[in-house]
Here is the input.
Amino acid sequence: PFVALDLALDAVTGQAAGGGAFAISRRLSVAYATGEGGGGLAARLRAAVQARRLDGDGLAGLGLSLWTAQPQLFGDGDTGAASWVAAVRAAGDNPDIVILDTLHGATAGADENSARDMGTVLGSVRYIRDALGCAVLLVHHANKQGGYRGSSALHGAVDLMARTDGDGDNWRLVCEKLKDGRQWEPLGFRPSTADGGGSAAVEWTGSVSAGPERDSLADAVITWLGAAEQAGSHFDARAIAAGLARDTSNNAMRVLNRTLSTMAQSRRLTRIGDGRLGSPYRYTVDVAAGQLL
Here is the structure.
């Protein structure tokens, strides 16, 4: 949510986004709808505004509208996408970007692991996009393996997918998918709490590499899974950690799970399972598909 709000303020002020990484040719208008942590949005906004040295009057003149009610993308009626679009129009908003924070909060009653349910949800997202003539940004939770939660239909439908990872003062914005474009190098950022209000703004620190540890880990995974005794079999993260004689502490497993997820999404590995209890993700290398290269 911190990064989404930061990008929203970049859009409405016309500043280059991501600490200067992405040029914005004109000021854009943004409708930001939150269904989770609504009470915290004011604190996050205050921190971000102070970090940019904007005052309240300056913010009021910008094209940022805050909505405490999200459209329910899996339903219709008074809370559905069509009713929400009508409310936005009635308020005089004409957003270039709609941000829904979070996808989970906007999909009550839907099974996020069901391709059918997510197809309905994505249909509502497209309705909002077409009805308002805007882009739609969905803020979504990660799963315990470091990838995105829910059906793979989400990855297939979006034009852009990015994730944040890290801890403490070292975080990254990583591009997982960019349709019709080249994925950018990971961008580093850290939380800034200069406002003193208990919330944080985003301070961008520039491009960062995946890091030698992550690169060497990916190479080790490929080598181990491609060995003759493992060839053709699928292994979960703990089995891979054991095979590599790696630490299995929470932090070490978090790094391994994120690495495996990134490798699967970039098709360096083949993944099965749905990531839920009793059906963990399992991975293999498809030699025929050239995944050892």
In short: The chain has a mean pLDDT of 85. The first strand starts at residue 30 and ends at 34. The beta strands are 30-34, 64-67, 97-101, 135-139, 160-167, 170-178, 187-192, 201-207, 270-272, 282-284.
